[in-house]
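In the design runs reported in the main text, the only information available to the sequence generator was the tokenized backbone. The following block is the verbatim input for one such run; it is reproduced so that readers can re-run the procedure and compare outputs position by position.
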């Protein structure tokens, strides 16, 4: 996606087109960052869940 936007940017004839493409590049970067942030939160939650299960097993509790 970003590669295509950068190709379009370099081939754009007018400043208006370049600004529009730049806005789309910014939006795509924000979307990617939000996706990475969500993936990080999901991974952290999964780690916490596994740690809680391991602690429960060590105490002899049933699985949660």
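Verbatim output:
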């Amino acid at each position: 996606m970003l590669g295509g936007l950068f190709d379009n940017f370099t081939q754009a004839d007018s400043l208006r087109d370049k600004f529009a493409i730049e806005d789309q590049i910014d939006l795509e970067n924000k979307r990617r960052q939000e996706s990475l942030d969500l993936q990080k939160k999901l991974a952290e939650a999964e780690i916490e869940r596994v740690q809680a299960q391991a602690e429960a097993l060590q105490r002899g509790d049933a699985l949660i």
